[in-house]
Design brief:
The protein is α+β, with helices and mostly antiparallel strands. It contains six helices and 14 strands.
Length: 316
C-alpha cells in the first residue's frame, strides 16, 4: 500500500503518535502483569537538520553548521543543558552562507529514515520551493522496492502549517523573535507551528513542539535555529543524557531529554556530538523505541534529481 501523502505530515504524525502510545500502553500493561515493568515507546517522526536551507527574508542559503563553526571540546556530561544549547545556537548563528538564493523552479531534496518497532522505512522527497508540488520515492532501505517517482500537487490545507512550503517555512521562521522567551511563546502559540499550547500542557509539550518544528521544516533560516535552541534552554525539566544516543541513520549523538513521569513518553532531541547541530528526534526508550532522521535539505533543479555532492550521513 502506498504511504500516506507526505504533505499531510503533521496530521499523520499526530495520529501515529496516538496509535503508538495506545498500542504500547496496551502491550505494556500485559507485560507489566508478567514482569512488573512497563515498556517504553517511540513514535515515527520526520527530522530536519537545524542549520538548513534558505532564508527568504535575507535571500541567502544556509549551509549545515556541522560542516564548520564552533566545536565543543568538553564532554557533554560535564556541561549543562544551557551550555550545550548555547553552543548549538552559536553554530547556527555562525553558519556559512551562500550568496545564491533559490531561483525559478528550485526544489528542496531530503532523505528521511523512520524507524519504529525495529523496522525502518526510507523516503527520498523533493519539495518545490514555492510549495506548489512535491515528489517522493519510498521503500525499505536498499531493498529496491517501491522506487517509482511520484509527483503530486500540495494539498492547500498543508500550506497553512509548517512543512507545507519551503518558501513559507523560511518566511514564518524568519519572523521568530531573537529573544528566547518571546521565541518560545511564538512557537507554542502560533497556529502555523501547530495547535496552540496552554499552561496545562506542561514543559514536555513545549519541548516536543520545538522538535516537531526542527524535523518538519523544509527551510529553516540559521537565525531561527539559533532562537529555537536558546528558547529550548528555558524549558524546565530537560537534561543532557549521560550516554551516547544513535539516530535513525545510526549517527551517534548527544541527546537532550524532556523528563516525563511516564518514561515511555519522554522526548529526546539528538544533537551532533561536537557542534550540537540537530540530528534527530525520539520518543521513549527501551523495547519499543522508534527514531527518525533526515539529511540536510539541499537545492536541486527538479524532482528525481540529486545534489552533485550527496549529503553525508556521518555525524559531525
Amino acid at each position: 500500500m502506498p504511504p500516506a501523502p507526505p504533505d499531510r505530515e503533521l496530521h499523520r504524525h499526530t495520529a501515529l503518535r496516538a496509535f503508538v502510545l495506545s498500542e504500547i500502553e496496551h502491550s505494556g500493561a500485559a507485560a507489566a502483569r508478567r514482569t512488573g515493568i512497563l515498556g517504553s515507546v517511540l513514535t515515527s517522526r520526520r527530522t530536519v537538520m537545524a542549520a538548513c536551507a534558505a532564508a527568504l527574508a535575507t535571500g541567502v542559503v544556509a549551509v549545515n553548521a556541522a560542516n564548520g563553526g564552533v566545536r565543543s571540546t568538553a564532554h557533554p556530561r560535564t556541561q549543562t543543558v544551557a551550555q550545550v544549547l548555547e553552543t548549538a545556537a552559536r553554530n547556527a548563528d555562525d553558519s556559512p552562507r551562500s550568496p545564491a538564493a533559490p531561483e525559478g523552479d528550485a526544489w528542496v531534496y531530503t532523505v528521511t529514515t523512520n524507524c519504529k518497532f525495529g523496522s525502518c522505512f526510507e523516503e527520498r522527497r523533493w519539495d518545490e520551493y514555492s510549495g506548489a508540488r512535491f515528489a517522493f520515492k519510498s521503500g525499505q532501505p536498499n531493498a529496491g522496492n517501491d522506487d517509482d517517482l511520484r509527483i503530486q500537487k500540495t494539498n492547500l490545507a498543508a500550506l497553512s502549517h509548517i512543512g507545507g512550503s519551503p518558501r513559507r517555512d523560511a518566511y514564518e521562521l524568519g519572523k521568530l523573535p531573537a529573544e528566547p522567551s518571546a521565541a518560545l511563546r511564538e512557537i507554542t502559540t502560533d497556529r502555523y507551528f501547530g495547535t496552540p499550547l496552554n499552561a496545562g500542557d506542561g514543559p514536555s509539550k513545549q519541548f516536543e513542539r520545538i522538535a516537531t518544528v526542527f524535523e518538519t521544516s523544509k527551510a529553516m533560516p540559521p537565525r531561527a535555529a539559533a532562537a529555537l535552541y536558546r528558547a529550548m534552554a528555558l524549558i524546565p525539566n530537560i537534561t543532557v543524557v549521560d550516554k551516547p544516543v544513535k539516530d535513525a541513520f545510526g549517527r551517534t549523538g548527544t541527546a537532550i531529554r524532556a523528563d516525563d513521569a511516564n518514561p515511555s513518553r519522554q522526548v529526546y532531541i539528538i544533537l551532533a556530538p561536537k557542534t550540537y547541530s540537530y540530528l534527530g528526534w525520539q520518543l521513549g526508550d527501551g523495547l519499543f523505541i522508534g527514531k527518525s532522521a533526515r539529511t540536510t535539505p539541499e537545492f536541486v533543479d527538479g524532482p528525481g534529481l540529486e545534489p552533485s555532492q550527496p549529503a553525508k550521513l556521518s555525524a559531525a
